[in-house]
Amino acid sequence: MTSPVKRAHPAVLLLRLSALTALAFSVALAIDYYGPRSTFCGADGGCAHVAGSAIGQLIGPWLPALGLLVYTSIFVGSLFSSREALRTMSLLAIAGAVGAAVFLGLQGLVIGEWCVLCVGVDTAAIVGGIAGGWIVRAKLGEPGAKSALASPWWGLFAVAAVGPLLWIFAFPDPDLPAPIVERWDRTADVNIVEMADFECPYCRALDPVLHEAIEESGLDVHLTRIMVPLPFHEHARGAAAAFFCAQRQGKGDEMASHLFAAEEIGREGLLTAAREISLDLGAFEGCLDEDAIDDAIDADMEDARRAGMEGLPTVWVGERALVGFDGRSGARPYVEAIHAAARDGGRRVRWWLFLVLIFGAGFIALAGDRLRQRAARAARPEPEPPAEKKRRRKKRA
What we know:
With 397 residues, the chain is mainly α. The chain has 2 domains: 10-149, de novo design (two linked rop proteins) (Up-down Bundle), CATH 1.20.1440; 178-344, Glutaredoxin (3-Layer(aba) Sandwich). It contains 17 helices and 4 strands. It has helices spanning 10-34, 46-52, 54-59, 63-78, 83-111, 116-138, 153-170, 178-181, 201-217, 236-248, 252-261, 267-276, 281-288, 291-306, 332-344, 352-379, 386-396, and strands spanning 190-196, 221-227, 314-317, 320-323. It has a 4-stranded mixed beta sheet with strand order 2-1-3-4. A hairpin with a 2-residue loop joins strand 3 (314-317) and strand 4 (320-323).
């Protein structure tokens, strides 16, 4: 007969679930913040704006790591049934809820942007704080240092901690957009298609890094560009025209490098660039105002739309799109992407990894439950043998 196992109080269950939810969002936030690119949030989304704000730059570097530490601690501590452990974890959860409420206020009232991942962490933290207050008020727990570390809850912990990491490798890439494949040179080792705006500060910062990565890779890399001059950049469209006009004279790459680095890309800046790379100035200046160049820019912008551009810069390295640019990582992500593309096109591993996670989590949960049942049976007093019971009855008689 299986020994009954004491069920956790609803407040403890709520504390554990909120801690696991906050942990999962913290892992995703850490991947986006410490990784080479935005995986869960768009490069131009609210997360990027919050991280780039003065407040985000001040507390951003340590906030994801703090979330991992705090919510792992709360979850593990909640598995202990002792009153002291539950009270300590509850107070930690309440403190986390206060911090979460403050950060939500800063996002909404000061920064004016919302980071989806941060909101996920903060919402779960507030729920955890409510559960913690419930536990403290109800004085839950038992005296002593009892624990329930042998628990099926470790299966859910594995999902929360590992699931976001597997997303990077397991989320399937979409079919390659035609505007990307059309620009490939099949004789090259690797093809790179860059969507850029010469006035975009991140595009300008990326250019030397991208060239460094190409050189460092040591491979034959074919680089081509799709012009995406954003309408709110005053000189971006004229710079795109200059790029196309330089291409006519076989010097598109030289013009692109010059425009990315130049401080002035108005009309005079474009003519200066043309002189410095030794273009035919008469042909170049006449080209800038041609309707055909306007049409070419419009066609590129339509290609970017068809390719599903999410933000600038977007760099397709083989079959993988790298969106946004984080200068802290340097050329490393692009070198790695180039080598990956040379091996297998740069695509990620497919969804089957999630099946491994599900079955692994199920196995962990089952093993934890078996250990819990075994511990419960061991804690019960041994039943008195029938012979001994009969002997004692005779003695009393």
